[in-house]
Write a structure and sequence with these properties.
The chain is of the alpha/beta class. Helices cover 35% and strands 21% of the residues. The chain contains ten helices and eleven strands. A hairpin with a 5-residue loop joins strand 8 and strand 9. Helix 3 crosses helix 7. The chain is globular.
Length: 252
């Protein structure tokens, strides 16, 4: 079984332009993501998918593989699908290009169920929410699942709604594990054929409302396997996030 990790990376970003090339301890961010992804035990190939020659040049400079894609893509999934259509692979892993602290084990955790169960079409990750801030933040996507680990819903709103405990929510309830809730980690694994099909589906009502692409799969009746991980990562959306990543790398 061939498993290919594709890292969508664009130069333009409303909150942090050029972040893929931002320096982190002497390397561009995209290099950290690439090298950590390549350390996955299950991934066969790693490809950066971008619409900018500067990112292509940076990746090739450190010996990585980068492919140019259309500048017209509105989402990273569309960029992913363009590359997937060109290659021979069974499973495609979407690793976000702004996750320089991604643990290779996280990729393996998300891929393993797909490799073991041919009926699965899509999988992703979740981790326990430990602070009230994350639970309330619309920038932290929440997920609820059924007993078999399949997603029921993803939302930017607090999920679930602790109706009888809302007035006394406190950080210690999360850190002590008294409130069971999870944040979604935006790493996706697809069967290649399903990814190509998914990218051709029209955006759906809930997807557009929440600005969460994965809801398109649920609204069309497809199941998403969600695997719990104990690993943590820091996505870089702003210069402040970048500083937090740099500080963490200096300490490691």
């Amino acid at each position: 079984m061939k498993i290919t990790a594709i890292i969508p990376a664009r130069y333009g970003s409303t909150r942090f332009e050029g972040k893929a090339l931002a320096d982190i301890c002497g390397k561009p961010m995209i290099q950290h993501v690439y090298e950590r992804t390549a350390r996955s035990a299950l991934v066969s190939d790693v490809i950066v998918a971008t619409d900018d020659e500067r990112i292509v040049a940076a990746v090739r400079k450190f010996g990585g593989r980068a492919e140019m894609t259309s500048t017209g893509h509105e989402t990273g999934t569309d960029r992913l699908a363009e590359i997937a259509a060109r290659i021979d692979s069974d499973i495609i892993v979407n690793v976000q290009g702004d996750e320089p602290l991604i643990e290779p084990a996280m990729i393996d955790e998300a891929v393993e169920p797909m490799a073991d169960d041919p009926s699965l079409l899509m999988s992703t990750l979740k981790s326990r929410i430990k602070t009230l801030h994350d639970f309330l933040s619309p920038n932290v996507v929440k997920v609820v699942t059924d007993w078999e680990g399949y997603a029921l819903y993803f939302s930017r709103s607090p999920l679930p709604n602790f109706r009888d405990k809302w007035n006394d929510l406190k950080d210690e309830k999360f850190s002590s594990g008294k409130l069971l809730c999870y944040k979604h980690i935006g790493l996706y694994v697809y069967r290649r054929d399903f990814l190509l099909q998914f990218s051709q589906m029209s955006p759906t009502y809930l997807e557009l409302s929440e600005k969460l692409e994965q809801l398109r799969a649920l609204e069309n009746g497809y199941r998403i396997k969600v695997i719990e991980t104990s690993h943590e990562s820091i996505g870089v959306d702003t210069p402040a996030d970048l500083e937090a990543v740099i500080e963490k790398m200096k300490l490691s």
